[in-house]
């Protein structure tokens, strides 16, 4: 069989793909990436153009790979050539075809981004090693990821093994062995349903027909239809939540509908409307601004100016409105000046931050990706919606987009991509017998064999599907780290054989003296997150020599949360680690009051917090530890005591904006008293406090006495009998130095007096009453 047979197969595939508005993929496999392979690829691409009746240069071609491939690509092709590390730059862009270098493997996040830039009728040419080579292929990024003291020799490429098996089974894919000049896999496609729903614009409408005509799918038309009643509020506030898989046009439709919203509000407000657009990065909203500009012209708002940061649009300004992008951190402040807040890719933002962003906002619009290579929005939908649905003054409208924009429904390449990257993984369906067993505590805990995991597709999808529905922003690379890295292990809790809690742990520590010395000189090891942190923040040189487990992920099936499964999993995990003679267990997470309580209930104490919020997610990351041996307990207690001492000081500055409940949780985590100077009070100061307690003075006149006392109070393990609301006021005013307006308590003044009196008596004794 010759290259001519490949061209015939490409012609057949191209014809079928065009008829169905789909894409197709051709793997050209060879032991070496060289001119011969590039010539075959060039011939294949030219034949694709001929089959589509397109001329050379008439299509937009993307070429992506590493340096050597890019050098060859310049010789043979005219197109946009990028290195893998620049993949993020093409997010949201559309190409007619793609040539991608897979000869040294690939980073799974890059694969998802690049494949999804290709529109219907396009060819994806993948230059690949021979099929058999995938079973032992270790890419450069494996070297970058493997944790010390392991090396790339310890890596097992299970992800690539599953990848090539799935590719051999996939529809829409041709595999050609360039060395043997034969087709290994022919093109197959079975049509299951129509690729595109007919677009029908509603007859009765307030939104202009010109805006509807910007919609590429009937799903987008339905979004605009839902905004026809956006201002018909039954409650004081309104929130629209748009969810979609990747590439469904949710960001574009936000840009299309914004001019209508502006026009309606401008009539009422009699001034320019302020629209705040929030997303994890300015790159994420470029499609929004692109369609906003088109829609403004069609709405009759032609005279506008734009402002850029680098090459990214961040502001559109006109006499009708100011539409401005803000990162989540800035949005928490600036939302007070906005008439409408639009949050795109909301799954990439921490839920407490989202709640702060929409606090008091009349009109809020959220959109997020459900299944995507950048992260999942299902957790957002579950956790965030639960919270805002509890607020009685908000009317919520939910919309889901299903139809792809760049290609038709049923596209086999999308199906293949979702399969190999597990973007559409789902947890097991639980029935009443499963739930009854959970109620009775009839749960089983087990470590999963990773080789068995990639052979059992149902188990893998169940296991990873829980993460997709949980509160983690998962990426395909997380799956690869779990499957391929030697120190990363999967464990689970099951009932009737079904996974109800998924755990991903990394073994850390066990470092030799030489590596510890390098760490102390500033060296940052690959992996080894907790040992590195403890050494560099607490200068405990022997801690990295200990062995422990870092819990990378723990997630419970969303149908059976709050039934004790997570706590059961942690307890059994600790027992599992103890049986392997480990010294500690730990984890790191974006802190929230709920998560801090969960870890504290299970014997973990906080030992570190990032003073700055993550600019994208808005989170402070907390590290927690639990001792697995008696002699390790005192060391962790010492670290925790030093940590709480720092938190007491940070709350007045670096952690001033942290959630109040989280601050109190961190302060009350203290296991061991901190060495601290006791405050001493003069006769005059005692008299001043007495007058305050008698109601003859104000807190503002005794704050200089109260604050040192409260700081000292939180260095002790024995506590006064404060109730929850009294402690909130005490911490907010005396440690975080917040204004009374920032404390959500109409009786804050009275509670402060009661709280300070209790702490004063705790310190001085009853004689000071």
UniProtKB/TrEMBL annotation:
Subcellular location: Cytoplasm
Family indicated by similarity: Belongs to the TmcA family.
Membrane spanning residue stretches: none
Task performed by this protein: Catalyzes the formation of N(4)-acetylcytidine (ac(4)C) at the wobble position of tRNA(Met), by using acetyl-CoA as an acetyl donor and ATP (or GTP).
Pfam family name, one: GNAT_acetyltr_2
InterPro entries attached to this UniProt entry: Acyl_CoA_acyltransferase (IPR016181), GNAT_dom (IPR000182), P-loop_NTPase (IPR027417), TcmA/NAT10_helicase (IPR007807), TmcA/NAT10/Kre33 (IPR032672), TmcA/NAT10_N (IPR013562), tRNA_acetyltr_TmcA (IPR024914)
Keywords recorded for this protein, A-Z: Acyltransferase, ATP-binding, Cytoplasm, Nucleotide-binding, RNA-binding, Transferase, tRNA processing, tRNA-binding
Record-given protein name: tRNA(Met) cytidine acetyltransferase TmcA
GO cellular component, one term: cytoplasm
Residues that bind ATP: 220, 406
Enzyme Commission code(s) on record: 2.3.1.193
N-acetyltransferase domain segment(s): 464-578, 579-629
Domain spans labelled TcmA/NAT10 helicase: 241-424
Record field: catalytic activity: cytidine(34) in elongator tRNA(Met) + acetyl-CoA + ATP + H2O = N(4)-acetylcytidine(34) in elongator tRNA(Met) + ADP + phosphate + CoA + H(+); a cytidine in mRNA + acetyl-CoA + ATP + H2O = an N(4)-acetylcytidine in mRNA + ADP + phosphate + CoA + H(+); a cytidine in RNA + acetyl-CoA + ATP + H2O = an N(4)-acetylcytidine in RNA + ADP + phosphate + CoA + H(+); a cytidine in tRNA + acetyl-CoA + ATP + H2O = an N(4)-acetylcytidine in tRNA + ADP + phosphate + CoA + H(+)
SUPFAM superfamilies: Acyl-CoA N-acyltransferases (Nat) (SSF55729), P-loop containing nucleoside triphosphate hydrolases (SSF52540)
Main location: cytoplasm
UniProt: acetyl-CoA binding residues: 554-556, 594, 601
